[in-house]
Amino acid sequence: MNPRIKKIEQEIDKLKGKVASYQTRCRELEQQKRELENTEIVGVVRSMDVSPDELAEVLRALRSGAPLPQNHLNKEDNNHAN
């Protein structure tokens, strides 16, 4: 076999190994990022002092583009006034 072809094949194999390693590392970093985002979201939600039902209602309203439920708005207004 032509030595140049063999050299190129070796370089291809080496690069394929690096690509696989980088893809694995990228997936790991994406998972870490997702976990940190989830932790941050949970912290924000818990700080809002709303029940799970109220939270679900607010999220449905936001998703549909409807105005926020009044009971949540009143809580927010009361919290800012204190």
From TrEMBL:
InterPro entries: DUF4315 (IPR025464)
UniProt entry keywords in alphabetical sequence: Coiled coil
The keyword Coiled coil is assigned to this record: yes
Residue ranges that the Swiss-Prot or TrEMBL entry lists as coiled coil: 5-39
One Pfam family matching this protein: DUF4315
Keyword Coiled coil: yes
Top-level taxon of the source organism: Bacteria
Protein's name according to its UniProt entry: DUF4315 family protein
